[in-house]
Amino acid sequence: MQAVNIRVLRPGLHTTVQDLGRYGLQHLGVVPCGAMDAVAHRLANALVGNAPGAATLECTVVGPELLFEQTALVALCGAAFEARVGGELLPQNRPVLLGPGARLRVGSAVRGVRGYLAVAGGISVAAVLGSRSTYVPAVYGGFAGRALRTGDALALAADAPALAAARFGRLKNTRTSAKFCSTGWRIEAMTLPPAHGIAVRAMEGRHYGQFDAASKHAFFDETWQLSKDSNRMGFRLAGPALVRRNAGELLSEPTCLGTVQAPADGTLIVLMADHQTTGGYPKIAEVAGADVALLSQLAPGGALRFVRCTVGEARAALRRLHEKIATIIRGIELQYGA
Prior knowledge:
Elements (H helix, E strand, L loop, with lengths): L3 E7 L5 E3 L19 H10 L8 E5 L4 E4 L3 E14 L2 E2 L6 E3 L3 E18 L33 E3 L4 H11 L3 E3 L3 E4 L14 E7 L8 H9 L2 E3 L7 E5 L14 E2 L4 E3 L6 E4 L6 E2 L3 E5 L4 H5 L6 E6 L2 H25 L3
Parallel strand pairs: 12-20
Antiparallel strand pairs: 1-4, 1-9, 2-3, 3-8, 4-8, 5-6, 5-7, 5-8, 7-11, 10-11, 12-19, 13-14, 13-20, 14-17, 15-18, 16-17, 16-19
């Protein structure tokens, strides 16, 4: 039986266990789930020496307060949070060694929306259909199929304290403060959105040609605003109402991460990590995969513009993103002496 390593003193607004998702089952109606910002998730895991698919805690808008009962090596990536250990600011985007009894309080996000807290060894929950990601609507995966609550007890890998000490001991350029140990280096925060809004590349979708000329121009020319009704399933965008020339019903068909749907009321919905497996709304566009992580960090009320791109350009952008992530991870490995 595994010892409990983390106790939840306060759960935050919506904190869930996530990994890279469960794929290959959408034809059976199984939602992919996974980290909304897979880039930040991967980098947080790399900073503590984990494999990319290890489970992390996804913190949304307001993070949790956690008690670490044993030594732990952690990293917080993604949105910029007001995070503290015993009153001392926790440095983000770098490995941090916490001692037994450390209290980590991840406060409000000051830029971006979602942060990823990785712990050496990973969050130890049972895999469901090959993934530890939480799918709240169907109550499965993660920790009891739900967001964390006050009093929850999370287990880490059985050897997490030894892993933490061993891995931190291999790091170069370390520093010690009153509350924790860290490093003198950090990695780039790759997905922090600029304050003035974001630009997201998008390709014309399967039903783009069914919209009138004014709607086609509006999609790429207008500025859209993220609605407060957005969630992990889909981001609702406020802006001009788009009009289809043929308002007939469509047969439901498969959907994917980044599909931009246009319901009958003319609003837009960008499908996110918890998106449904099929849908019958017209698909006006598809967001380039390289920009999904950035989009996931947009706060309600934030501004968004779509930039037209081709399939080839989207593939090239995704390839460049993966190359950049690989370069950063290789740099982290060198700091570990690998």
